[in-house]
Amino acid sequence: MRKLAPVEEAKVLFTEAQDWSVFRWLTEKKRVRRTADAATAALNEAEAAVKEAWSDALKKAFRADGHARGIDPELKLAVQRLIEADADAENARLDAEDTFAAAEHHLSAAMAREGARKAIESYRLHEHAIRKAEALRQRDRRKD
């Protein structure tokens, strides 16, 4: 997977933001939100492009959570692992969002810093899931 500029920008911002005061968090809130949204959109677009390039059989296996009939057991396992990686990435994103919301509610710089750390981790997990999706595409192409 190639690096995505919006994601790299978000990682840099959130790394820097781990040293911010609560006042700085409040004054940068809109920029943080825009940056996070752009990173998430870029990751979602990259993921969709990879999955769009899959064969019909692979798409069917994924939609059936790997439980479609006649699927190679190794492919089933790979699809299950991708589904888990996708879920891990989404759960991490939601956890970061919740942490940021709590930080804002409590005016807590410590919680905002934790949200920044969680956001970076969610990007890493989403990139990992996209690499798994790419690997499935490559595996599927080798079969043809």
Q: Describe it for me?
A:
- The protein is an all-alpha fold.
- It has one domain (5-143).
- Helices cover 83% and strands 0% of the residues.
- It contains 6 helices and no strands.
- 27% of the residues are buried.
Shape: elongated
Terminal Cα span:
22 Å
Overall number of structural domains: 1
- Largest sheet data: none
Helical residue percent?
over 70%
How many E-type strands?
A: 0
Mean model confidence by pLDDT: 92
- The SSE string, one letter per element, is HHHHHH
Question: Which strand-content bin applies to the residues?
Answer: under 5%
Helix-strand makeup class: mainly alpha
The radius of gyration over CA amounts to 18 Å
Q: In DSSP terms, counting alpha (H) and pi (I) runs of 4 or more, how many helices?
A: 6
Low-confidence stretches: none
Q: What can be said about this structure in brief?
A:
Helices cover 83% and strands 0% of the residues.
